[in-house]
Amino acid sequence: MTVQHTIANNTNTNDSERLIAALQGRLSALSDLHLTLKHVHWNVVGPSFIGVHQMIDPQVETVRGFADDLAERIAALGGSPCGTTAAIADNRTWDDYSLGRDTVTAHLAALDVVYDGVVGSHRAAIELAGKIDPVSEDMLIGQTGELEKFQWFMRAHLEDPFGDLPHAAQATEAGAASTAR
């Protein structure tokens, strides 16, 4: 990746390239998340359908906006943001979402695992950005707070009265969905 310029004079080209690569990874993850959330919105069924259906659409819009913010930050840093499906596939370190039409509990448990991955990767990018660019770090911190709030909304549907999640021991979205059914 060729970086045309840097925002701050104290940011060297190597640091800028690493930061841009990290932001591109986050852009790809959020682009995938927004598509996954819309997929769930279309495929969730069950007694709590309407509440979950309506809860997910604002998440879709917010996550799409986060992706746009990251793309603009990449451009401001001198990079060239890539929002294609090929970029998502190239940057993917996660499995594609595998559930189709399924219950509220199955989808929410699967999404909980998805959010674990997205939030964890955002936190890693925060750590890198904190060493290079406070503006990018601040953006990522704000996004992570919102993503964690969305995850809390989903977990609140799944928790028992003691705060336990039936799928807590599962590391994959398919495993979480199966346990939650």
Automatic annotation (TrEMBL):
CDD domains: DPS
Pfam families for this protein: Ferritin
Domain Ferritin/DPS residues, every copy: 20-160
Family of this protein: Belongs to the Dps family.
Protein known as: DNA starvation/stationary phase protection protein
